[in-house]
Structures are given as C-alpha cells and as structure tokens.
Design goal:
The protein is mostly helical. The chain has 15 helices and no strands.
C-alpha cells in the first residue's frame, strides 16, 4: 500500500469513528446541508447548468457581436465569447464546468483552458443578491459587491498571460439535446450538493469542538473560507457593516474550500492549481477594490487606475522578455 492510500484510509477510518461517536452532530450537519441544497443550490445552480450546456453546444463557433469587445479585453479565443455568460452569470462552479466541457470537446487547447479556469468561474447574481441583499442597509453596497467581484475577475484575466501555443479554430458543433443537457446537469449538480453536505457536516463538528471558543469575527471568517453559503449567512451576526462588506467580498472572491472541491469534481483532468491561483489573485484584487470603495469614490478610481497601469507595465515587461528570448 502506498503512502497516499494509507493516509486516505486512515482519514476515512477516523472520520467513520467520529461519525459513530457523535452521530447526532453529523445528522444535524447533514440535515442543514441537505436543506441548503434544496433551498439554494438546486434553484440557483441547476437551471444554469442545463442552460450553460445548451448554450455552449449551440453558440461555440458562432460570432457574438455584443460580446466581442469584452472577449478581446479578456483575451478569449475568437468565437468562444459564449463562455462569458456562464462565467459571470452562472455561479460557482458553472463557468469552470463550461471551460472543461469545451476542452473535452476539443474546442480549447490545454494551456488556454488552464488560463480560462483562473477567471471564468464566479459567484452568480442569483446567489449574490439572494444571500447578501439583507446584510446591508444601502442597496448600492450589494451592487458594489457584485461590481467588485466582476472587476476582480476581469483584472485577473488581464494579469494572466496568454499561452504562446496557437489556439484551435472554433468548429461549430451539433447542438446538445435537452435530454443530454438535463442528464449532464443532474450529474454535476449531484456532485456539488454532495460536497455541500460533507462540508456542512465538517462545520458542525468544528463548531462543536472549538469554533465556539473563538471571537465571532474569526468564527465567521473560518466558516466563510470553508463554505461560501454558510459564511455569507453568518455575516448577519457582525455588527460593523464595513467589516461585513469586506468579509463578504473576501468570501465571494475566493469562493471557499467547498467550491474549490466542487470545481475539482467538474474539471476532469485539468489541473486545479490554475483555478486556485486565479482565485487568490481575484481575492487580492477584490480586497483592494473593497478597501478603496469604503474610502470613497476618488480613492476607488485612483486604485483602479493604478492597477490598470501595473497590469499594462507587467504585460509590456513580459513581452520584452519573450522578444529577447526569441532573438
């Protein structure tokens, strides 16, 4: 038995022992996780999974004039602009699943698919407005969170260099049937819900063991980094609205470890490291923009300008290095 199998077996055995010794906590956590799936995950994600699969099947290889400018800004391959719809509107991890689907169908090279994973999976507006609208006294704060979240993804896309490998030509494919889209969406949704239930059980045990001893802000921060939905829901217990704003931006930008595992389950043999590096970069950009927004409009505009200048200078520096290497 190799070391990896040994550790996996030991961890599974320890987990089973914990479940046996404290079945009540496990049951309560699982019930909460199932309720979260039924009330939030299924209504907000399942329809987007179905429509994303249908959309990419119908539109890949087609020119979308309304998306061409944003596609060039993010340096998407030509005629793959349809990815922007699940990437920014579908919610975690719909965008990542869409990228993996195109890669598996031969519509993206591996380097391009890895790059797109870094910024094409984001919190959707249905989840964001549904979970965070009640947390803030002013409506602009929720819209601001969404704007900061999207801006963080765009800046990440502008920061990450393109691959030097020529991209494949987009070939129009046969449209996916509703039956196939439904079956694929059910499969992906089941994986997502499975991870949500497992993480809710983990959070229940952590809360029982030691989280209750920590200050409320640290408790909520740890929960949000583990599981996005529970973290956003728990923000209501923080009195300082500015701190709620910052923590919510942090949770949305990173997505949580549970979303990371959901992503790992839908991207096939693409490496998860590219997704994680993109999420960390997006989180950093989001926190900078969040801090600037709290300081005022002038500071926010100056921060955006400085970030754009830094990105442009970095890209020029990379181009000079590549040119020198080519010579």
């Amino acid at each position: 038995m190799n070391r990896k199998s040994l550790w996996t077996g030991a961890g599974a055995g320890l987990g089973m022992l914990v479940l046996i010794l404290d079945a009540k906590t496990a049951l309560e956590g699982a019930q909460d996780g199932i309720a979260l799936c039924v009330q939030t995950i299924l209504p907000s994600l399942f329809p987007f999974f179905v429509l994303s699969i249908l959309l990419n099947g119908a539109l890949v290889g087609e020119t979308l004039p309304g998306f061409s400018l944003l596609g060039r800004l993010l340096r998407l391959p030509k005629n793959r602009e349809s990815l922007l719809i699940p990437a920014f509107l579908g919610g975690y991890p719909v965008g990542a699943q869409a990228v993996a689907s195109l890669y598996q169908r031969g519509q993206l090279t591996r380097p391009t698919a890895r790059r797109l994973l870094a910024f094409c999976s984001n919190a959707g507006p249905a989840f964001l407005f549904g979970m965070t609208a009640s947390l803030f006294s002013e409506g602009w704060m929720v819209w601001g969170l969404w704007g900061i979240h999207i801006a963080g993804a765009v800046l990440t896309a502008m920061w990450i260099p393109e691959s030097s490998e020529p991209e494949r030509r987009a070939i129009p494919t046969t449209a996916v049937s509703w039956a196939d889209a439904l079956a694929s969406a059910l499969n992906v949704t089941a994986r997502v819900c499975g991870w949500v239930v497992l993480f809710r059980v983990l959070i229940a045990f952590l809360d029982r063991w030691f989280l209750w001893m920590l200050p409320a802000e640290i408790q909520i921060g740890l929960i949000g980094l583990l599981e996005l939905s529970n973290g956003c829901y728990a923000l209501k217990d923080i009195a300082d609205e500015s701190l709620r704003f910052v923590l919510c931006s942090l949770f949305l930008g990173f997505g949580g470890l549970c979303v990371t595992m959901q992503t790992a389950s839908v991207i096939g043999n693409l490496p998860l490291g590219d997704y994680l590096r993109g999420k960390l970069m997006q989180t950093l950009f989001s926190l900078l923009l969040c801090w600037a927004a709290i300081q005022g409009t002038g500071v926010l505009c100056l921060t955006v300008l400085l970030l754009l200048v830094a990105i442009r200078c970095t890209r020029k520096k990379r181009s000079r290095k590549l040119s020198t290497a080519g010579v």
